[in-house]
Amino acid sequence: MARIISIDYGEMRSGIACTDPMQIIVSPVAGILTSELMTYLEAYFDREKVDKIVLGMPTYEDDNPTPLVKLILKFISDIKQKYPDISIDTINEGFTTQRAKEVIYMSGIKKQKRKDKHLVDKMSAVIILQEYLGHI
Predict the structure, then answer these.
(1) What is the DSSP string of 4-58?
(2) What is the pLDDT, as a whole number, of residue 107?
(3) Which of 28, 49, 51, 105 would bridge 122 by S-S if both were Cys, CB 3.0 to 4.6 A apart?
(4) What pLDDT, on a 0 to 100 scale, did the predictor assign at position 60?
């Protein structure tokens, strides 16, 4: 089997999480600048076998898409063009950032470390992938 990765795509920063090859355990991978995301993924795909990418799709409380969805759809198109063998799914990511902050707070991480926005992005990607795995 191969890994499934999830991406919490943001305008400035994105978080990445992945499963183990057996697709059981979810782990945070990276929090990076979105401008470097494609380069990061290219290197990741060179060293790891990935079957699927799951992207969180942000919506408002009324389930209407946020403006960020346009950028995510463009990113999906770019990925499909470059890596046609990797399937892509999306999942509603409703309030994952807030839930990630709560998980980080509850884990006892010191206040200074909790301010690391990349940590929040990675944890959001973990939550997205855990929810996705729970649905399939």
Answers:
(1) EEEEE--SSEEEEEEE-TTS--EEEEEEEEGGGHHHHHHHHHHHS-EEEEEEEE-
(2) 66
(3) 28
(4) 82
- Residue 45 vs residues 12, 22, 95: alpha-carbon distances, Å: 22, 17, 28
State pLDDT tens for residues 86-133.
999 998 887 666 766 666 566 666 666 656 666 678 888 888 998 899
Question: Mean pLDDT in the chain?
Answer: 86
Q: How far is CA 113 from CA 12, 97, 118, in A?
A: 19, 16, 10
Residue that has been written with the tokens 């060293």 in this structure: 47
Q: Which CATH code for domain 3-135?
A: 3.30.420.140
Q: Please, are residues 7 and 125 in contact by the beta-carbon 8 Å criterion?
A: yes
20/22 Cα distance (integer angstroms): 5
25: how many CB neighbours lie within 10 A of its CB?
Answer: 10
The answer to whether the pTM exceeds 0.90 is: no
Short-list 116, 52, 122, CA closest to 80: 52
